[in-house]
């Protein structure tokens, strides 16, 4: 019996031990799996971390490369734009081709004076270089000069005359890196596919209207005269505005208009002026480089002159009553800025009383404009600026009658000018001979 009990106890113990072993094995296996799972998770996490780090590194590397490339490009551009050490910055180069002289007290001087003012504002010749070709009345000669300036690499070339338009349109396609400007005009060549042409003009009819108002109030003979060059450009605008200004102010005043057919022949202008004076005109006006001839003629007749483009009272203070003055500075500065920003052309500019490109100047030394008239003038100018008076619309409604000097009148004026020049030369030669003879005795 005891033996049986002992065997039973032993069996129980063995069973317990077996159970313990089984449990321990299970726990061990569980721990092992857990460790393996943890190890796998850790490995996966590490792999993910490594992948993330690699991706971040790649992104950082790409960003660094892009930033480096951009910085390099910017630095290169700045280096190319900036002068080398010891080297001065290159000036912006402007060339002007003009039909008369830069001091003609008219059309050409109006642009040249504005260019000089811009040059001074920019810092002088080191910042803005100005080249000028004067007295190029012949269009073919002007075209040669325009092409030569373009070939020399000038940045901006002004063809300062309506007559130069065809030449500009022919030359511009050959020099796409050069900007051209011509006036007075509004055509930039867009329809022809051109992209490097600027155009500019003055709404000269506005100041013409004001000068006409003044002339209508000052004339005693009730006749005023106009000495025009060619019926084109700002000359035509001005003259039409002047005629309308007279007619709107006093319909009883007669306006006589003569076109000489020439922009710069002062002898023709003088002849036309004398013709108008013979018809009782006591006040004259006109346009272009020929005006000195007309001003001298009305000065001799002790009449008055109304000016445009430049204040000609600086030379004829006893004759010029008022002047419409052109200021091209804002236009020039914008063209330069556009060119520097890569805009080669395609913009048409206008001077007007509203934008300040045209101003009215009155000769206070003459003292012929009463306070009452000046009040009317100022009120009229403001109405033009505000759009209450549309001079352009008024001009379109009126057909301005004009006559052109015939061949006979032109020949007479030329002969007269030749005779005057011969007489002056003879007088000078006689005076010199007399002085020499006196010195030798």
Question: In short, what is this structure?
Answer:
It contains twelve helices and 13 strands. The chain is of the alpha/beta class and 441 residues long. Among the domains are: 92-202, 3-Layer(aba) Sandwich (Rossmann fold); 204-325 and 358-421, 3-Layer(aba) Sandwich (Rossmann fold).
Pick out its properties.
six-stranded parallel β-sheet, Rossmann fold, single chain, 12 helices, seven-stranded mixed β-sheet, 441 residues, 54% helix, alpha/beta
pLDDT averaged residue by residue: 83
Distance between the termini: 188 Å
CATH topology of the domain at 204-325 and 358-421: Rossmann fold
Content of β-strand:
15-25%
What shape does the CA trace take? globular
CATH architecture of the domain at 204-325 and 358-421: 3-Layer(aba) Sandwich
Give me the side-by-side strand order of the main sheet: 12-10-9-8-6-7-13
How would you spell out the order of helices and strands? HEHEHEHEEHEHEHEHEEHEEHHEH
CATH superfamily of the domain at 204-325 and 358-421: Response regulator
The first-level CATH class of the domain at 204-325 and 358-421 is given as Alpha Beta
